[in-house]
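Ticket reopened. Same input as before:
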Amino acid sequence: MQERAEIRSKYWLALFLVAAYTVPFAVGIYTENVFFDLQWLADLTTVILNGIMQGGVYAMFAVGLTLIFGVMRIINVAHGELVMLGAYLTWMFFFYVGIDPLLALFITLPIAFCIGLLIQKLLLNAVVGGPELTPLLITFGLGLTIIHIVEAIFTTDYRTIPYAPDALQLTETIAVSKSKIISFVMAAFISLSVFFFLKVHRIGKAIRATAQNADVAMVCGINIFHIYMITSGLAAALAVAGGALVSIQFGFNPETGVLYTLQAFAIIVLGGRGHYIGALIGGVMLAVIESLISFMIPNGTAMVEIASYGMMVFVLLIRPRGLMGPKEN
Amino acid sequence: MAETEIALDIQNLKKYFGGIKAVDGCTFQVPKGQISGLIGPNGSGKTTTFNLLTGVLDADSGEVLYNGENIVGLKPYEVFNRGISRTFQITRIYREMTVFENMLSASSMKMPVREARERAEQLMEFVTLTKLRGEYGGNLSYGQQKLLEFARALMTDPELILLDEPAAGVNRTLLNNLLDHIHHLQEDQGKTILIVEHDMNVIMNHCEKVFVLDYGVKIAEGLPEDIQKNEDVIEAYFGHR
Ligand SMILES: Nc1ncnc2c1ncn2[C@@H]1O[C@H](COP(=O)(O)OP(=O)(O)O)[C@@H](O)[C@H]1O
Ligand SMILES: [Mg+2]
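Engineering reply: fixed in the latest deploy. New output:
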C-alpha cells in the first residue's frame, strides 16, 4: 500500500513539473508572446541558458541550507542574510581595497566559515535536538539583527558591482552575459568541491554519519558538536560564495537576503530536504521555470515569485520528500 | 586470590525517570582484565546502567571512576575516546552505510586513514563479515548487525567493552563465534568485558564474576555458582514478579 502511494506521489510530482514547464508556453501562446521563428527560438535558448546559469548559483547557496537541515534538523531562516552579507563583503573588498570579486573569495570564504562556526557555537549548539521552534526563532532573530546592522552601516541604498558586463556571443543570435557564465562555473566548482569533500574526506564522512544518526555517531566517538560547527561553517561559506556571485550580477540592499532565503527554501523543498544533489537539481529547475515565466508571460516578474512559492506549497502537498529527499515523515 | 585491579569503580549511581527509579544507588567494582556479567530481571536497570556508564544518559548522582577519573557527565564520544566502547541491546548501526563504512565511522580522527582501513579489514575478518563489506547495514540480519556493532566497538582498541545482551536474537553458531572472540579479547589482549545477558548459560559459563540488579539496586555479587544458589537472586527472578 505504502509503496503504491509512494509511486503515485512520484507521478504526481512529475506531472506537476511538466505542467509547471508547460504553463508559461501556453500562456505565452495565448497572449501572443510566442513566435515560431528562428529569432524567437534563439531568444528562448538564451533564456533557458541564463536560467541554468542562474540556477547553478541559487543551487549553491541552497545546498548550504539543505546541509544544515540534513545534519541538525534546523531550519535556518538567516541563510539569505549570509548571502546578503557575502554580497556586501565582496562589495567592500572591491571598492575599498580594490580586490577582484572572485579573488576576494579567498578572503571572504574563510571569514564566512568562521562566522558560521561562531553562530553555531554561540547560538545553536545548545539547542540542537531540542524543540524545533527554538533554533528557528534564534535564526529568525539573527537574520533580523544582521539586516539592521548592515542597514545601519550601509543604509538601504542599492549597491552594485560593475563586473564583466559584456556578453559572450555563442552563435550569431545567442549570447550569454560573461558574469553569468563566470558565476555559474564558480558555483559548479564550489558545490562539487563540497560534495566530494562530504563523500571522500573523513570529516565529510563524519558529517554524513552525524546527519544519518547523531546518537550512533556519538557512541562511535564523533564529537557531534564539532561536526555541527564545521557544517555551519561550510553552509555559511556556501551562502557567502552565493552572495559574491549574485553581487556581480544584480544590485542588492540589506533586505535582498530575505528573498534568497525564500528562494533557497523553495529549492530544497523541490529537491528534497537534506538532499545535496537534490538541491543542485532543484536550483536549476526552479531557475529555468522562473526565466521561462518572465520571458513568456506578460508582467512575468511578478509571476515569478508566485511561481516559486506556489511550487514549494504544491510539492509539500503532493510529495513532501521532493525529488530526492529521504522517506521518513 | 590476589587483589585484582579495578577497571570501573561505580559509586552510588542513580537515575530516576520521573517516578521510576531505574538505577537507585548502585555500587559495584568491575575487575580489570576479566569477563564480568551484569544480570537481573527485565526492567531492573541494566541497560540504564550501561547508558549512564557511557554518557548516553546523564546520571542524577553518583560517580564512576575510570583510571582515577570520574566519567559521569562526559559526553558519549568523550567516554568512547577514553577507551570505553559498547554495543546496544537494540543494535545501533548506520543502516544507510555499508558494513565497511560503519567500521570506519568508529575510527578516531587521530588514527591514520590507512591504519583505520587495515584495522577495519582485520576486524571484519575476525567476525566473518568480510564478504558483506559492501552491504548496507540495514540489509544485514539481526545477528549480523550485532556482529558488526561488536566489531565496530573494537575499532579503536578499547580497554573496556560493554556488551548489552549480545546473545539475544543471535543464532547458536554466531553466538559461539562471538563468545570465542570475547574470550580471545580477554585472554590474549587483557581487555575488560562487562556483559549484560539474559541467557544464563552465557553468564554461568563465561563470566568470572556476576553482579545482580533488582529495581535498580545491586542485590548480590560473586562467582556464578554462588549467585545461582543465592536466595535473594532466586527471589528476585522468581519471587515477586
Ligand atoms: N528513557 C526512559 N524513560 C523512562 N523510563 C525508562 C527509560 N529507560 C528505561 N526506563 C525504565 O527504567 C527501568 C529500567 O530499564 P532498563 O534499564 O532498560 O532495564 P533492563 O535493561 O534491566 O531490562 C524500566 O522500568 C524502564 O521502563
Ligand atoms: Mg536492557
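Chain B is about 35% helix and 25% strand. Residues 6-238 of chain B form a domain with the Rossmann fold fold (CATH 3.40.50.300). Please confirm and we'll close it.
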